[in-house]
Amino acid sequence: MTLPPVERPGPVDIADPEQVTAVVEAARGARPVRGTTVVVAVDGRSGSGKTVLGIAVAQTLACPVVHLDAIYPGWDGLAAGVALATRHVLEPLSRGEQAAYPRWDWMRSRPGRTLAVPAGPHLVLEGCGALVPPAAAFAAVRVWLEAPPEVRKERALSRDGEAYAPHWDRWAAQEDAVYARARPWETADLVLGTVAA
After folding, report:
1. What domain range includes position 119?
2. In a domain, 90, yes or no
3. What is the DSSP letter of 90?
4. Which residues lie below 8 Å from residue 45, measured CB to CB, with a gap of 6+?
């Protein structure tokens, strides 16, 4: 018996130009929710293409991008990472203050150096949980990305290698928990599929 072919992702290092344009146009037309910075939140499950899209949008807008992967305090830190990003980045920016966050040192499993986040008219926050509370309250543009589970897993493991493999299910369980409560796809301005047709 021949199994149907697995749906293959397009290049994972190149964002879909039409999707980038759609997000950028939304960002340029949006007003800040709090303060003077339009926060573009790009969320979705692991391997859905958040980082690729987030970087492309930030480059087009010439604005900073904050990767939640750099903030989560370890493999059990999804919810804690969202809270840290809110406290260290989103809240200070909303008050017109300097934002900076402790980058998580994955090799040493502890906080590392502090990274400053320049203030400006736009900020991209990308990562699992960017559209869940408390961070969601700051999002002026809400983007949810989708891809089939097998595609997401292939992308994530090809990106992060075997270091991620033993943690896939552990991380997915945290995604299930935070997304079941927040259901961010229901409040997204844009819901985008990231698998080439």
Report:
1. 17-42+51-193
2. yes
3. I
4. 128, 147, 152, 172, 175, 179
Give the model's confidence band at 189: pLDDT under 50 very low, under 70 low, under 90 confident, else very high.
very high
- CATH code of the domain covering residue 157: 3.40.50.300
Residue in the structure block whose two tokens are 């960002």: 27
Within a domain: 55 = yes
CA 93 – CA 96 distance, rounded (Å): 5
6 within domain boundaries? no
Region 64-69: what's the mean pLDDT? 98
Query: Helix (H, G, I), strand (E, B), or coil: what is residue 101?
Result: strand
Q: Residue 85 forms beta bridges with which residues?
A: none
Quick check: 126 and 65 in contact, CB under 8 A? yes
Residues 97-146 pLDDT 10s: 999 999 999 889 999 999 999 999 999 999 999 999 999 999 999 999 99
Which residues are registered as beta bridge partners of 42? 126, 143
Instruction: For residue 7, tell me if it sits in a domain.
Output: no
**C-alpha to C-alpha distance for 184 and 142, rounded to whole angstroms:** 8
- The structure tokens listed for 73 are 């305090």
CA gap 63, 55 in Å, rounded: 10
State the total domains in the chain. 1
Say how far apart CA 18 and CA 16 lie, in whole Å.
6
Q: Which amino acid does the sequence have at 99?
A: A
